[in-house]
Phosphogluconate dehydratase (Variovorax ginsengisoli), 612 residues
Amino acid sequence: MNTHPTVRAVTERIRARSLSLRSAYLQDLADTRVRDRGSDRMGCANVAHAVAGIPANDKFRVVSERAPNIGIVTAYNDMLSAHAPYQGYPDIVKHEARRLGATAQVAGGVPAMCDGVTQGTPGMELSLFSRDVIAMGTAVALTHDMFDAALMLGVCDKIVPGLLIGALHFGHLPTVFVPAGPMPSGLSNTAKSKVREQAAQGLVGRQGLLEAEMQAYHAQGTCTFYGTANSNQMLLEAMGLHVPGSAFIQPGDAMREALTREAVRTVLGRASDAAFAVPPIGELVDERVIVNAMAALLATGGSTNHLIHWVAVARAAGILIDWNDFAELSEVVPLLTRVYPNGTADVNGFQEAGGPGFVIGELLDAGLMHADVLSVRAGGIREFAGVPVLAGTPSDERPLTWKSAAPSKDDTIARPVSAPFSATGGLKLLQGNLGRSVIKISSVPGDRHVIEAPARVFDSQAALQQAFTAGELERDVVCVVRWQGPQANGMPELHKLTPPLSVLQGKGFRVALVTDGRMSGASGKVPAAIHVSPEAAAGGPLAKVRDGDLIRLDGVAGTLTVLLPEDEWAAREISKMPDEARAANGRGLGRDLFAGMRRNALTAEEGACSWL
């Protein structure tokens, strides 16, 4: 199948835009790759320190036999259900590596915080920048420079982008990402949302709400909605950085260990009968692979957070993308899945219907993904259109086979390109005199794609919640929540605003949210223009909005405007972020340590990077 003309055009535009930066990046990789391997290049004391803590046989292999040495970077902690399964992974990796005549070392750990724990708390103001901390932690781990390949153990929201950014700064290493899978389905996401809305109205008390939440989040594994964490896994599959089909196999499944062992074989180039030199990740992740990830995000109605994170990921590989690229692709990439919050099914249902493999196969067959790209497998990206089958015990030499993920096993969850849920993708760019922003249009009911109503301006999410509780929002309203961008307070997610706004919408009012902050990957239903850039704290137009201004959010035309005469709007004074708010955002609970990141952060459309 020939590549779709729009996909080709967007890719070529990205390639041309990135030419100078990408060329310099690849030259750095080439210069790094010609060096002698670590234990030959380093001084004797350096090498002795590097192998002092490992078994004698492994020392012999690394130093004398020059065996491949795999660096493991892990996000394990047992605070996060998604990362708790990683506790035993290093032992599995080391065992498999030894079986193959190689060695493995835990090069380092990176922090992993849970947005579900920190939603609505000061800790959430560290969340976005934790991505860059994780990238730096990955660099610290790999800078021991004794490794011939790397395995990345991480799943959730900022962890995968951070690991990927860090790995791309060591782009000379073959690298495979190792997921852990979603928890079994508990209380349905639809039922959970209903209880949350009832709690927002005071119809359910704290005990009832707590019981519902604990039924929903109840075991090891990622949350089961298609939020940022699970979108991460979809994108890694589309980029060819996993063992094919490993994204959504549950932690307790017997196949999980087999997939982890297969990751070791894959990164060593031993996953096929013929020898295969796994490409360095920096060469593998080119502009075509980035476009493939974008297409997969759009086809699945994935998390809006990736319009920030994958801009930063691409930049780490010397590639420049922007929201125009996403918007143009969204016009031709159809929506192929309905997974909560875009539907009622969870990711376990998505996996049963065909999962990432089904979507990738459909996009490849339609020319909506590049087929001629590198991956960590000898068969290229086409291998990722399959689902794994356990054909032996995990410790067998070849315990896994793959079968085609097509056709869909449930067309209420996953549909072919020939009969999509929507002819266009799940995300939309909004532009106008309020700046540039994005909306997850796939989760919003069709009759809510256009909202025009008076503004009510808030300087914090707490202020909006207070107004809701006081009954001040019982009308058509566009709630503007500003001072929530990267420079203002680290750009926290505002997911706790979803229940009250959903209640208002459920009462028949036409409501929308406009903010320079983020919403959770799980948010939907209520139209929300998010990531507004430039942010208010940087002098963006949200700082001009006043209570009562008529605002129009048009998800069909792709516009976000305040309906005032042009001369009046131009002459209006820009409000300043209150000094007390800025001071409060920078104190306590670790926020002081992130002052430099807030000060240096780029715009959301530039990936909110703090390291450039």
About this structure: Residues 5-35+68-184+219-404 form one domain. DSSP finds 24 helices and 14 strands in the chain. The mean pLDDT is 94. The two ends are 39 Å apart (CA to CA).
